[in-house]
């Protein structure tokens, strides 16, 4: 079992993952019990909350929209700081949509869902609201300086808004690109059973093959999505380093502070 995957320890958590253990190109390692990524926290049981409290959770950074938050509020241990930090005004990823809504919107062509996700990854780079959200994300990571105090960041599915936050964070710390991509794509392995069950439900309802294709595209991550984000970053600022500095506002000194906090 991958030591970073925490789902087996939780009753209702999905796509819960440690970012600890990844090595940087300079030979350092990200600390365990410092930073987690996940999907929705709305269904956590009291046992799950106790697990997270014992794990050291202190900050909960929520990238979801207002509608997503209001529909399914986070359930976290007492004393955890909740930070509402929407990346989009509305859920462009469609992760919070029902199967019926998806069929109405994306059930006409096999690549509707795929095209939507490509749009999401362009918007996540160029949208000013997204840039401000990721700046606030780093502000709270920089504030998480005490040992064994954990910051968690999440959205609804824990793969797109959360996935790009992880890409930015790992890149800032100096993790190599292959490892960053591996962490991004790990979502597909972690949520495979969940996605398969959703697809089986749709097949049992005899929904169109176009809808099933769109649902798979919307519920998964693909190299094309990440490549779209990278290409958009290059177009915007020339490099990831420039993007973090110019678009997100992360200075070289702040990157050094992040390394002091999260690396050993």
Number of DSSP-assigned strands: 5
The N- to C-terminal Cα distance equals 24 Å
CATH superfamily: Protein tyrosine phosphatase superfamily
Order of helices and strands: EEHEHEHHHEHHHHHHH
Give the gist of this structure:
The protein is built from 12 helices and 5 strands.
Protein architecture, described:
- The protein has a five-stranded mixed beta sheet with strand order 1-2-5-3-4.
- Helix content is 53%, strand content 8%.
- The protein has 264 residues and is an alpha/beta fold.
- The chain has helices spanning 46-55, 66-71, 99-106, 112-126, 128-142, 161-173, 177-190, 192-204, 209-219, 223-237, 240-247, 252-262, and strands at residues 17-18, 35-38, 57-62, 81-84, 150-154.
- The mean pLDDT is 92.
Give structural attributes.
single chain; 264 residues; alpha/beta; Protein-Tyrosine Phosphatase, Chain A; 5-stranded mixed β-sheet; 5 strands; 8% strand
Topology diagram in text:
Layout lengths: L16 E2 L16 E4 L7 H10 L1 E6 L3 H6 L9 E4 L14 H8 L5 H15 L1 H15 L7 E5 L6 H13 L3 H14 L1 H13 L4 H11 L3 H15 L2 H8 L4 H11 L2
Parallel strand pairs: 2-5, 3-4, 3-5
Antiparallel strand pairs: 1-2
Helix pairs in contact: 3-9, 4-9, 4-10, 6-7, 8-9, 10-11
